[in-house]
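Reading a protein record of the kind used here takes only a little practice. The integers have meaning only within a learned vocabulary of local backbone shapes. With that in mind, consider the following protein and its fold in token form:
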Amino acid sequence: MKKIAIMFCAALCVLFAGDASANACYNPQQFEAEQGIRIHSELMVIGLTCMKMPQGAGLYKEYQAFTQKNQDLISMYENEMIAHFREEGAKNPEKKLHTLRTTLANKISQHAIQMSTSSFCQHFGPRIDQALAMDHDKLRRWAQHVWPQTPSIEPMCKL
């Protein structure tokens, strides 16, 4: 019995030692990148959810304008995350980025499901106008901010 327990523990140690994501964490650039992708994904869900509401008319077009205006920053964030996933040993880092985007979009979609569409759009709709009015520096500061109620997928690395 003792041998089985030791073999089981050894197998677990090998399994987790080979899994880079078990101890994964973000440096400040990676944290900003995930949060920037979170912001972009949330704005997309807001635009799509609210575009047919009276108070949301035009929000999807504003989301598209935000995306166009910040395409270089969004691409930088995507490339940062792909590089991070590659460093973690992901077999398909681009797919992992798409999974991350889906996970982040699903989180904001849960708010829309829990609230009435009207309340959701009234509460979250103004974010698109606010984001569209930001320059790159202000948008980056927003992405660098730590929001305890919306933690990142991976924790910040302890320095």
Q: What stands out?
A: The helical segments are 2-17, 28-50, 59-69, 71-88, 93-114, 117-124, 126-133, 136-144. The radius of gyration is 19 Å.
